[in-house]
Predict the structure.
Amino acid sequence: MAENIIYKKDGHIVTVTLNRPEIRNAISDDDMIADLVTAIERINADNEVRCAILTGAGTAFSSGGNVKKMRDGGGMFAGSPYGIRNGYLQGIQRIPAAMYELDVPIIAAVNGPAIGAGCDLTCMCDIRIAGRSAKFAESFVKLGIIPGDGGAWFLPRAVGASKAREMAFTGDMVDADEALQCGLVSKVVEDDKLQDAAMALAKRIAANPPHALRMAKRLLREGERTTLHTLLDMSASMQALAHKTEDHKEAVDAFLEKRAPVFKGK
């Protein structure tokens, strides 16, 4: 069997590819969950990484849950209601928990259908770029279930309350153009240009000081759940740290000297 995840580092950028095209990159199997979480933790542990890209092998980004195992009651879908609850808590819910703690910006390069948990996985990323053939569906209701992977938390933050409810209550498919219109993605490109577009954006992000990037992401994340006064206090503390980095001095010097900066992550 091919490896579940392809992890490729290019300079300061890591590309993580879901690599189970024969099951359309379903992410509910235990080994896929473990390998994806390991890849995320590996990125976090590498201070050289400044940006990441998440994409899928083949013609799909991710079909989400393994519906055949769902039908047969296998894997995380096995056992009593209590057992299934634990299957979610100790299984697929490890992915949103790990993604939420990812320090560096991550771009979803959505190369095809992103369905159910696959759609939610794109929403766990900071930025989404879609290929023309990309489609999205919060399709759990079509199978008589609910978003068990945290989608009810991530999706409204990506598209707003009304559109999230429309997607969750109908389970209908959203094509790339509609995804762009509702803010689910920030850009749509032709399929053969997707990886280049994602890498170009990643390089623009990775060109910036890594400590500032990580702190900015932390503030944006905390701003979704905290009060203004708490966020202002966090911002002041992080800004004090940023002002004392060598990269800040280099950025100011380069600006005044009208040259390109060279950041060292110090």
In short: The chain is about 45% helix and 15% strand.
